[in-house]
Specification:
Keywords: Signal. By secondary structure, this protein is mostly beta strands. The protein has one domain (about 30-125). It contains 1 helix and 7 strands; from the N terminus they run αβββββββ. The protein has one helix at about 10-25; strands at about 35-40, 45-50, 55-60, 65-85, 90-110, 115-120, 120-125. Strands 1, 2, 3, 4, 5, 6 and 7 form a 7-stranded mixed β-sheet that branches. A hairpin with a 2-residue loop joins strand 4 and strand 5.
């Protein structure tokens, strides 16, 4: 069989992927336009570790006794994964999508005043900036 008689599958796959990508360009996802979801966690600790998995996250000090997490998430394609859990002194938050994906996410975490916070292993100020 000559090389010209071989199936053109890689080229066909590339064309199909490009067609899907072009079809998605008309889709616009923006977390700021999504309906917010909130979840609160009881908390009595004096320090908190926040793992964000590189999702935009604003941390703010608030007059509250619990931790409140608000999530904005929008997607148009892909396999969605969402997580917000508190285990011990670690708040683990994540939102995104995999595969041929189009999504956007943002979090806001309100922490009781006086709680020391690290974000992804770094000390952070609770000033509401990502």
């Amino acid at each position: 069989m000559s090389s010209s008689a071989l199936p053109k599958r890689p080229a066909a796959l590339a064309v199909a992927a490009a067609a899907v990508a072009l079809g998605l360009t008309g889709c616009s996802v923006e977390a700021s336009q999504a309906k917010p979801e909130s979840k609160s966690f009881p908390y009595r600790g004096t320090s908190l570790k926040v793992k964000t998995h590189e999702v935009a996250t604003d941390l703010v000090a608030a007059d509250r006794k619990d931790i409140k997490v608000t999530r904005w998430f929008d997607s148009a394609a892909g396999t969605v994964h969402l997580r917000w859990t508190l285990k011990g002194d670690t708040l683990d938050i994540d939102a995104g999508c995999t595969g041929l994906a189009l999504c956007d996410a943002r979090f806001r975490v309100e922490v009781p005043k006086g709680v020391a916070v690290t974000k992804d292993g770094h000390k952070t100020r609770l000033d509401g900036r990502s």
